[in-house]
Every structure is written in C-alpha cells, then in structure tokens.
C-alpha cells in the first residue's frame, strides 16, 4: 500500500521525469554517463553536443591523444581520468564489439570507467532493459522514504528491485532523482512541502524523536 502510494505520488509529481543527459544513441549516452560521474548533468550537456559533432563514433576518438581529448572535456571534474577511460573504452568498442555499444551488463561492465551504475543507466535508457541505477539521490531518497533500508548502493538497488514492479524500475529511478533534486535535498529536505511526508519513514522517525 505504502509503496504503491509513493510510486503513484511520484508519477503524479514528476510526469516528465526522464534522463537529464542529452544523447541521440547508446554511444553518446555511454560517454555522457562516464563524464557525469561526480559531475553535474548540466555541465556534461554543455560540452557533449560539440564533442559528438566532432567525434560521432568510437572510431573517431581513436586518433586522439589523451591531451587532445582533455582539451575538449576540461570543464568536467576528473577530466584527466575520464579522458583515459573514454579512449580505452572506445578502443575496446572498436576492437571487441564492432564499434557498437553492447546491450548486456557483463560486456558493459568490462569497459574502462563503466561500473554497475553506468551500465544500469545505459541499459535502461538506451536499450529499454529494466534497471535501477542507484546514484547519490536515489540512495538517499529511497532510504529516507523507506523504499529501501540498506547501507550500501548494491543492497539499495536489490531492495528497490524487490519493492518496485519491474516495469517501473527505470522510471522510478528518474522519479527518485527528480525528487532528490527538487525536494528531498541532502542537507535540508523540504519535508514541510513534501507530498510524501505522510508515508515517509524518515519524516516519521524525526517527528517522533
Ligand atoms: S518527507 Fe522529507 S525526508 Fe521524506 S521524502 Fe519528503 S523531503 Fe524527503
């Protein structure tokens, strides 16, 4: 009952929730997601249209030196590491996967700079495979609401997959991120104006203390 109330409330609050990264195909989403680690989607969206105009495919990245790629992405945090990961990923995409982004988790996670969260983002948003990518917002909001009660990202993902119907995994990820950005802030959650406070585990715990 509580889970379905939370999900229907989030659906009503955020009918337009979707991936905030700009992309036109799985390759662009993969690179944008690597760039977005510990950086804002907004900062990534500022540079990726020009980046993909110049280098639209994995093969187009291969002639670049790390320093040349760094020059195109230097406004993004950790850009030196990310430039190396992107070049190594493009090399593998060309040599092992025929220049295409693979649509399975194991292959995606074999790429440099691609962990479980990035693989989930690509699987769900580019290939339509149900998945819940747990980032800092999803982790915080899910555990505050009581959709999960977990100390780790992996356990949070596992519990969310158990509590949320599979057909809603991908959109629930977008709902929880949007709620975290707009209302359930890390330091000062706006509980008094939050529609979910009647069913929020963290809110009830705080008001009972
Ligand atoms: S009531 Fe507060 S803690 Fe709970 S989801 Fe809303 S903003 Fe977050």
From TrEMBL:
Pfam families: HHH (PF00633), HhH-GPD (PF00730). The gene is nth. InterPro entries: DNA_glycosylase, Endonuclease-III-like_CS2, Endouclease-III_FeS-bd_BS, HhH-GPD_domain, HhH_base_excis_C, HhH_motif, Nth. This is Endonuclease III. SMART domains: ENDO3c. Coiled coil: none annotated. Gene3D superfamilies: Helix-hairpin-Helix base-excision DNA repair enzymes (C-terminal), Hypothetical protein, domain 2. Residues 35-182 form the HhH-GPD domain. Keywords: 4Fe-4S, DNA damage, DNA repair, DNA-binding, Endonuclease, Glycosidase, Hydrolase, Iron, Iron-sulfur, Lyase, Metal-binding, Nuclease. GO terms for molecular function: 4 iron, 4 sulfur cluster binding; class I DNA-(apurinic or apyrimidinic site) endonuclease activity; DNA binding; DNA N-glycosylase activity; metal ion binding. Belongs to the Nth/MutY family. PANTHER family: A/G-SPECIFIC ADENINE GLYCOSYLASE/ENDONUCLEASE III, ENDONUCLEASE III. It comes from Heliophilum fasciatum. It catalyses: 2'-deoxyribonucleotide-(2'-deoxyribose 5'-phosphate)-2'-deoxyribonucleotide-DNA = a 3'-end 2'-deoxyribonucleotide-(2,3-dehydro-2,3-deoxyribose 5'-phosphate)-DNA + a 5'-end 5'-phospho-2'-deoxyribonucleoside-DNA + H(+). DNA repair enzyme that has both DNA N-glycosylase activity and AP-lyase activity. The DNA N-glycosylase activity releases various damaged pyrimidines from DNA by cleaving the N-glycosidic bond, leaving an AP (apurinic/apyrimidinic) site. The AP-lyase activity cleaves the phosphodiester bond 3' to the AP site by a beta-elimination, leaving a 3'-terminal unsaturated sugar and a product with a terminal 5'-phosphate. Binds 1 [4Fe-4S] cluster.
């Amino acid at each position: 009952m509580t889970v379905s109330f939370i999900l229907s409330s989030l659906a009503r609050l955020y009918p337009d929730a979707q991936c905030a990264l700009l992309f036109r195909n799985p390759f662009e989403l993969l690179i944008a997601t690597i760039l977005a680690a510990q950086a804002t989607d907004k900062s990534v969206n500022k540079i990726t249209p020009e980046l993909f105009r110049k280098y639209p495919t994995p093969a187009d990245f291969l002639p670049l030196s790390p320093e040349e790629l760094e020059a195109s992405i230097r406004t993004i945090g950790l850009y030196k590491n990310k430039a190396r990961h992107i070049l190594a990923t493009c090399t593998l995409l060309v040599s092992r996967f025929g220049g295409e982004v693979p649509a399975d988790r194991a292959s995606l996670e074999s790429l440099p700079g691609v962990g479980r969260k990035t693989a989930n983002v690509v699987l769900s948003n580019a290939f339509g495979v149900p998945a819940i990518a747990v980032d800092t917002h999803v982790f915080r909001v899910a555990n505050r609401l009581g959709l999960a009660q977990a100390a780790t990202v992996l356990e949070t993902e596992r519990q969310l997959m158990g509590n949320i119907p599979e057909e809603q995994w991908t959109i629930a990820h977008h709902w929880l991120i949007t709620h975290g950005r707009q209302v359930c802030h890390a330091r000062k959650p706006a509980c008094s104006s939050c529609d979910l406070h009647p069913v929020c585990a963290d809110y009830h715990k705080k008001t009972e203390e």
